[in-house]
Amino acid sequence: MLRVLKESFCSTSFTTTRLASFTTVLSRTLRLGEGGSAREFWFWTPPSVNPDAAYTFGIIGDLGQTFDSNKTLQHYMEGKGQTVLFVGDLSYADNYPNHDNRRWDTWGRFVESSTAYQPWIWTAGNHELDFVPELGETTPFKPYLSRFHVPYHASNSTSPLWYSIKRASAYIIVLSSYSAYGKYTPQYRWLEENLKRVDRNKTPWLIVLLHSPWYNSNGYHYMEGESMRVQFESMLVAAKVDIVFAGHVHSYERTHRISNIAYNIVNGDCLPVHNESAPVYVTIGDGGNAEGLAAEFTEPQPDYSAFREASFGHAMLEIKNRTHALYYWHRNDDGKAVMADSVWIRNQYWH
Ligand SMILES: [Fe+2]
């Protein structure tokens, strides 16, 4: 069986308070360890849920632990991100001999420079599965679920692999590409119910995270997200989701607003079409892991693809108010001031 190490926390203390325009924000300090080895960390508590709250998310996927991963993390930390939306494939420990779980620990230490100070909202990828019957490990996701705890009970979910969370003016839904999603499955039923709970008067921005992309024009992992798209896409279009972020493919791509929900087996309408009610889809699996870039895009570039490039990097979503957000992508080869791709996103409900 894979060995799982647990870390323990000790004392915490509140320190300062300050009033922001919409909410009270507390700086909280945690003291971990004892004596000379004690360390202090701090974080800001989240603002109250408010439809006009400005908030900045970073988006990172498929990070791993290489020099490129380090560059991605450093560039993100040079920006003003307040929370990371992480779209799966964290440590790549399963690529090491016997799924070396010490690689989960080294990854935890690697990302600590950010995760100790602000939340990362976790999505499970295929490298979190750690399903290795030949090593006696037949329980999927064990190392990941033992280390990364998410508040899934709060959204009436029965699994930490799918859940939702409200943050400032955003409602974020996390889905699992590697759990059952057919009709009547727990994840399907939960998504149906959870979408009914979204109140765009309170959280205007509706964002979905998942690992295996539904729209991507790269040859790498071709069509792997298709069966999940068939099950869930019409629900997201009906709910007027603003953006869907995915990883898995080690390159960057952003689509126009498109959908492919008209097909009913006999009518032949099986191609993606422009649909202003549909989400923008972003693939951001370019965090920098050791498997390298996915550089083979299909040619010609399909109409639905707005921008695509095989470079490592990260993205940012600056929510300005209930109607507008600035979205942009940084490639690692540039300084952080350069936006390699950028677009204003107009809110699907309020604009
Ligand atoms: Fe993946």
From TrEMBL:
- Keywords from the named record: Glycoprotein, Hydrolase, Iron, Metal-binding, Signal, Zinc
Q: Where do the Purple acid phosphatase C-terminal domain residues begin and end?
A: 278-337
Q: Name one GO molecular function term.
A: metal ion binding
Q: Which domain of life is it from?
A: Eukaryota
Q: Where is the Calcineurin-like phosphoesterase domain?
A: 56-252
Q: Which family does it belong to?
A: Belongs to the metallophosphoesterase superfamily. Purple acid phosphatase family.
InterPro entries under this entry? Calcineurin-like_PHP (IPR004843), Metallo-depent_PP-like (IPR029052), MPP_PAP (IPR041792), PAPs-like (IPR039331), PAPs_C (IPR025733)
Protein name, per record: Acid phosphatase
* Stored CDD domains: MPP_PAPs
The organism of origin for this protein: Ceratopteris richardii
What Gene3D superfamilies does the record tag this protein with? 3.60.21.10
